[in-house]
């Protein structure tokens, strides 16, 4: 590289030569890609590798202001016996599963309907269903918290009242608290998932439907044998991000209860991590919580990817 | 009619007669109309509540109030009147704008360069690096949150905008989107630029950047929405109340002992205005930016 550069420089002066060598090096086609990706390398080392390894290290330590000491698997052993943590894991997994049940089939159905020629004024419905995802979790959380308040005049108590039922304390019981959390999730993400599926449907070759029709397939058969297989990349993408988002849910619960729900009915894994790490300053214990979350997320996603046959395709 | 020429326009309902078809059209359009009304409800309810005293919302609970005679603009007048609360609110507004602007500009420039390097050249580390970009997306931010928070404290960046912005500048999903977009651009342009004597960086900035504009637009929208609405990380980093952004500030008003519920409800509705304006103007970019990863997989 250097020889190549110096042979090019016509100037005799040393300083100019050095300058040119550097410039040649920086501007060469071989160096340029590294210059371009340099910010990522830096950011990856400083803001990913370092925190990631330090959270692994911390999870085996008892962190005190005066210094930390190694306690081996102590944090993890304590976690397995920690009832609140186990409840939080149960809450997060349950929330994740229920969001999958609600936020994949229904948006897919809506998207298929919108993709047909039966629906008029499509643009308006798409926009209106998408709008909730633009509101911050603070605004949506505040609105739903107030609509689910235990007072007489809250929207959902008024609805109960309309059906002749007494008012209830929505956010203080298990099933209704879950209903509130799931309703926020559905409200915010139905439109988004619908648009994902819609763009997936748009990319399917209409010729496939034609040949299915020639073979005498009914609408339902076309959906099962053409639409679903062709939509697989989109389905896997939505499934993956939904699993992560569901397991890592925290802010919705934080907005409804301020991270202190009665009997921990709304405490999630990340909520527990926040409580231990930020509020109680137990970094070691909180790191162990985070790593258990990562393991759960990776395992569930692996199962999902194996079941959906993502790896099979690459092998053959 | 559909059933005479089925092969030209294949459709689920091609075997259905005209009458049933129009009934189905009315039914499914009506279904979406009802669904949209239900989805719009929480925001409509929030808006009607902002026309009433905030204390009423806390005492009675939030509900739809269509009694127009009871409506008043007092909350908004109070919010805009330049008193202590209004100064506080618009300070949050300004902080949010500033934070969004900094992170959007920084993120777009850096992610464009990184994706450019990853998609326009063949070099040793290329595939490894792209794999790393994907892998970082597999680890939720919440897991790195605590050690990152400590790191920011150690760097002395706590309570600064740098502390909020820096860790997110090279966002994996933004890099991924730019790379997806650029992989469809003709690489011959690079050689043409080289023959014309342009440097590698000149090609990147003067030839490729202008044709990447649509990707910039889509990512600008997505990044700015994310930044405008971000709560968790800024809430950890900003300690000084004068630096709070809108989500943090509005959240502080939501306490059982507060007396600023007027500002809470009117301010919440007010802070949606810029978001809606941007959405209405740039609607198509929202969808483009969002769905890029989903189709190609």
TrEMBL record, chain A:
Q: Which Pfam families match?
A: BPD_transp_1 (PF00528)
Q: Determine if Lipoprotein is one of this entry's keywords.
A: no
Q: How does it sit in the membrane?
A: Multi-pass membrane protein
**CDD domains assigned to the protein according to its UniProt record, in alphabetical order:** TM_PBP2
Q: Tell me, what is an example of a GO biological process annotation in this record?
A: transmembrane transport
Q: Please give the Gene3D superfamilies that the UniProt record associates with this protein.
A: MetI-like (1.10.3720.10)
Give the subcellular location.
Cell membrane
According to the UniProt record, one GO cellular component term is: plasma membrane
| Superkingdom, natural source | Bacteria
- Give all residue intervals belonging to the ABC transmembrane type-1 domain: 89-304
Transmembrane region(s)? 31-50, 93-115, 127-148, 177-198, 235-257, 283-307
Q: What is this protein called?
A: Arabinosaccharide transport system permease protein
Q: Which InterPro entries match?
A: MetI-like, MetI-like_sf, UgpAE/MalFG_permease
Q: Which UniProt keywords apply?
A: Cell membrane, Membrane, Transmembrane, Transmembrane helix, Transport
According to its UniProt entry, this protein's organism is Lachnobacterium bovis
Q: Which family does it belong to?
A: Belongs to the binding-protein-dependent transport system permease family.
From TrEMBL, chain B:
Instruction: Read off the PROSITE patterns from this record.
Output: ABC_TM1
State the source organism's domain of life: Bacteria
Q: Where in the cell is it found?
A: Cell membrane
Protein keywords: Cell membrane, Membrane, Transmembrane, Transmembrane helix, Transport
Q: Which InterPro entries match?
A: MetI-like (IPR000515), MetI-like_sf (IPR035906)
User: Would you tell me the protein name for this molecule?
Assistant: Arabinosaccharide transport system permease protein
Q: Name one GO biological process term.
A: transmembrane transport
- Residue spans crossing the bilayer: 21-45, 97-117, 129-149, 161-178, 215-237, 263-282
Look up and give the membrane topology term: Multi-pass membrane protein
Question: ABC transmembrane type-1 domain: from which residue to which, for each copy?
Answer: 93-282
Q: Which family does it belong to?
A: Belongs to the binding-protein-dependent transport system permease family.
Keyword Transmembrane helix recorded: yes
GO cellular component terms, A-Z: plasma membrane
The keyword RNA-binding is annotated on this UniProt entry: no
């Amino acid at each position: 590289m250097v020889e190549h550069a110096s042979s090019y420089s016509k100037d005799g002066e040393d300083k100019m030569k050095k300058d040119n060598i550097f410039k040649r090096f920086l501007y060469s086609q071989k160096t340029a890609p590294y210059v371009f990706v340099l910010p990522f390398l830096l950011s990856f080392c400083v803001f990913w590798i370092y925190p990631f390894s330090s959270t692994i290290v911390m999870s085996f330590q008892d962190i005190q202001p005066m210094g930390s000491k190694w306690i081996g698997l102590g944090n993890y052993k304590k976690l397995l016996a920690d009832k609140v943590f186990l409840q939080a894991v149960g809450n997060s997994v349950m929330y994740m599963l229920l969001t999958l049940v609600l936020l994949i089939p229904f948006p897919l159905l809506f998207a298929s309907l919108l993709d047909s020629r039966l629906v008029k004024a499509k643009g308006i419905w798409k926009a209106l269903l998408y709008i909730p995802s633009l509101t911050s979790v603070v605004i949506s959380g505040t609105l739903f918290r107030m609509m689910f308040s235990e007072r007489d005049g809250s929207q959902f108590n008024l609805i109960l009242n309309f059906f002749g039922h007494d008012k209830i304390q929505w956010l203080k019981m298990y099933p209704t608290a879950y209903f509130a959390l799931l309703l926020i999730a559905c409200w915010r993400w139905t439109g988004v998932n619908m648009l994902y599926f819609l763009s997936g449907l748009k990319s399917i070759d209409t010729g496939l439907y034609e040949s299915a029709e020639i073979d005498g397939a009914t609408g339902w058969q076309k959906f099962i044998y053409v639409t679903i297989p062709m939509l697989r990349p989109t389905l896997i993408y939505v499934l993956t991000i939904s699993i992560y988002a569901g397991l890592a849910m925290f802010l919705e619960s934080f907005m409804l209860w301020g991270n202190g729900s009665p009997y921990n009915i709304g405490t999630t894994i990340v909520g527990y991590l926040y409580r231990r790490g930020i509020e109680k300053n137990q970094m070691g214990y909180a790191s162990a919580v985070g790593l258990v979350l990562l393991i759960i997320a990776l395992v569930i996603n692996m199962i999902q990817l194996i079941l959906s046959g993502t790896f099979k395709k690459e092998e053959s | 009619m559909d059933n005479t020429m089925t092969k030209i326009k294949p459709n689920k309902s091609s075997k259905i007669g005209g009458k049933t078809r129009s009934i189905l059209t009315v039914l499914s359009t009506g279904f979406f109309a009802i669904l949209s009304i239900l989805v719009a409800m929480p925001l409509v309810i929030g808006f009607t509540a902002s026309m009433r005293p905030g204390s009423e919302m806390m005492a009675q609970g939030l509900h739809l109030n269509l009694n127009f005679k009871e409506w008043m603009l007092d909350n908004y007048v109070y919010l805009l009147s330049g008193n202590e609360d209004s100064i506080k609110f618009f300070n949050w507004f300004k902080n949010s704008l500033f934070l969004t602007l900094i992170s959007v500009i920084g993120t777009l420039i850096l992610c464009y360069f990184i994706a450019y390097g990853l998609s326009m050249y063949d070099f040793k580390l290329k595939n490894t690096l792209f794999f790393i970009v994907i892998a970082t997306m597999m680890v939720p931010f919440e897991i790195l949150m605590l050690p990152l928070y400590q790191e920011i404290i150690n760097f002395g960046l706590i309570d600064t905008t740098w502390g909020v912005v820096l860790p997110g500048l090279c966002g994996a999903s933004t890099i991924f989107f730019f790379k997806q977009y650029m992989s469809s651009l003709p690489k011959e342009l690079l050689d043409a630029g080289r023959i014309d004597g342009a440097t590698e960086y000149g090609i990147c900035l003067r030839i490729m950047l202008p044709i990447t504009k649509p990707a910039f637009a889509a990512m600008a929208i997505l990044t700015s929405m994310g930044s405008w609405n971000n709560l968790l990380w800024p809430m950890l980093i900003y300690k000084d109340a004068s630096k709070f952004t809108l989500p943090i500030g509005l959240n502080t008003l939501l306490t059982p002992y507060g007396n600023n519920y007027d500002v809470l409800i009117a301010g919440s509705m007010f802070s949606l205005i810029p978001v809606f304006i941007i959405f209405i103007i740039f609607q198509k970019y929202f969808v483009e930016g969002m769905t890029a990863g989903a189709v190609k997989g």
